[in-house]
Design goal:
Distance between the termini: 45 Å
Number of helices: 10
Strand content: 25-35%
Number of domains: 2
Oligomer: single chain
Shape: globular
Low-confidence stretches: 322-326
Structural class: alpha+beta
Largest sheet: 7 strands, mixed
Radius of gyration: 20 Å
CATH superfamily of the largest domain: PurM-like C-terminal domain
Number of strands: 13
């Protein structure tokens, strides 16, 4: 197949199609989309970009990258308890490689169809590869889960497992050696994260605060503590983790494992707080979703985050990801 001859042909070939959702009054092809929100809901809107060399390795499989480009935005909606509705996609691309675009579109579209997300617009330009999605979701009025609701006595939870995405980065960077099977698993977690949409929707009315773990647990949980004006103590041994990281935690690579678990980022699991009275409901929810919900600590009134590793209170915490940190 020949390369698209223009930006407009690229969009038409790979991303334009008639809207299937009647709420999309005008979709791809006009200067802007026209959308009809569901009565009785509020809009939840987020934007994220992925930059080659910063957020993903050059040469990353384009189908997985298409999935991740949408997944990281869906994860923001999950953290707010929102139901996804619409997306806009903008991208700077070094060229109009048709095979790359076809694979990218397949990964993006497959995840969009899973969650009934309509692509309603976007933009393209030539430049270093940079992918940006604006995501729009809905919540019943007044039910969005915020970062500022945690209270002393609340439990702290994390969904799924932590650290494998960061472990993949460590392995691909030559810092640690993994078996082929362990590397493949870790790389899937890095390149194909699963947004916890259903969990987020079902946490409405249960979670007192929530966010997704994108930059590392210590940094992200710190945002909840700051916004809620509380503190917390968590236990390293309670952190949900793969067998690979569990073994590393007990061996010579303990410090690498600890960094991956506490500050690695790219997990896109949900970290949330909930009053203790919801423990039974959350155990049932974990079973219903076939998704572990690990209780890793508790909120208290003492400012700051404290992390226990066995009987030891860590004196310094691994530094979470910061785009502008030196």
């Amino acid at each position: 197949m020949t390369k698209p001859r223009s930006e407009f042909e690229l969009i038409e070939r790979h991303f334009a199609r008639p809207p299937r959702d009647p709420a999309v009054r005008v979709g791809v092809g006009d200067d802007a989309a026209v959308l009809a929100p569901t009565p009785g809901t509020e809009l939840v809107v987020s934007v994220d970009m992925l930059v080659e060399g910063r957020h993903f390795f050059a040469g990353t499989d384009p189908q997985r990258l298409g999935h991740k480009t949408l997944a990281v935005n869906l994860s923001d909606l999950a953290a707010m308890g929102a139901t996804p509705r619409f997306a806009l996609l903008a991208g700077a691309l070094p060229d109009s490689d048709d095979a790359w675009l076809t694979a990218f579109r397949a990964g993006f579209r497959a995840l969009a169809e899973r969650y009934a997300v309509e692509l309603v617009g976007g933009d393209t330009t030539r430049g270093p590869r940079n992918l940006c999605v604006t995501i729009i979701g809905e919540v019943p009025t007044g039910t969005a889960i915020l970062r500022r609701g945690a209270q002393p006595g609340d439990d702290v939870y994390v969904s799924g497992t932590l650290g494998d995405a960061a472990l993949a980065v460590a392995a691909l960077s030559g810092e640690v050696v993994l078996s082929n099977g362990d590397l493949a698993h870790a790389q899937r977690r890095l390149e194909s994260p699963e947004p916890r949409i259903e969990l987020g929707e079902r946490l409405r009315g249960i979670a007192s605060a929530a966010l997704d773990v994108s930059d590392g647990l210590t940094g992200d949980l710190g945002h909840i503590l700051e916004c809620s004006r509380v503190g917390a103590t968590i236990e390293v041994r309670a952190l949900p983790r793969s067998a690979t990281l569990d073994a590393m935690l007990e061996g010579r690579t303990h410090d690498i494992a600890l960094r991956c678990l506490l500050a690695g980022g790219d997990d896109y699991e949900l970290c949330f707080t909930a009053p203790q009275r919801h423990r039974i409901a959350l155990a049932g929810l974990a079973q219903a979703l076939a998704l572990p919900l690990g209780r890793i600590g508790a909120i208290d009134a003492i400012p700051g985050l404290r992390v226990r590793d066995g009987n030891e209170l860590l004196s310094a915490l691994p530094r979470a990801f910061d785009h502008f940190a030196e």
